[in-house]
């Protein structure tokens, strides 16, 4: 995919939104010295180009009862079944990320469970039937930090 052509204003907008995705358009406009309509149009353009993929509120998993975060590497019995496995993973609400990877795993997922017993249930009752040769699980004790990628015109 070709890198979209972005100008200085686009990068200013992206920097502000990467710090605060809920920053009001009029506040962005004031800081950029343009109209609110111009910011609205630019954000629509950035979304149409696929630069901005939307906005989201981040929910603290433990605040809603999900205390266990696990990363699981999949070894598929039949790697040609990627698409079917991915579709089945979409039906498991606790699975929040799925990645095709290089290296030893065919797929790598991130999921949240209420506790270790719930994680074991998900693995045995929902993941084992997906055509897996085996899995390797890593449990995250705590997310230390998360951040957006740096945004600059030099990228």
Describe this protein's structure.
With 155 residues, this protein is an alpha+beta fold. The chain has a 4-stranded antiparallel β-sheet. Helix 2 packs across helix 3. It starts with 7 loop residues before the first helix and ends in a 15-residue tail after the last strand.
Could you outline the blueprint of secondary structure elements for this entry?
Elements (H helix, E strand, L loop, with lengths): L7 H12 L5 H8 L3 H13 L19 E9 L5 H9 L4 E6 L6 E7 L2 H12 L4 E9 L15
Antiparallel strand pairs: 1-3, 1-4, 2-3
Helix pairs in contact: 2-3
Outline:
By secondary structure, the chain is α+β, with helices and mostly antiparallel strands. The chain is built from 5 helices and 4 strands, in the order αααβαββαβ.
Task: Give a quick set of tags describing it.
4-stranded antiparallel β-sheet; alpha+beta; 155 residues
How many β-strands, per DSSP?
A: 4
Helix content: 25-40%
Q: How would you write the strand order of the largest sheet?
A: 2-3-1-4
Secondary-structure class: alpha+beta
Tell me what portion of residues adopts beta-strand conformation. 15-25%
Distance between the termini: 15 Å
Summed over residues and divided by their number, the pLDDT gives a mean of: 93
Low-confidence blocks of residues? none
The helix/strand series, from N terminus to C terminus, equals HHHEHEEHE
The number of helical runs is 5
Largest sheet: 4 strands, antiparallel
How does the overall form come out from the CA principal axes?
Answer: elongated
Q: How would you describe the oligomerization state of the chains in this entry? A: single chain
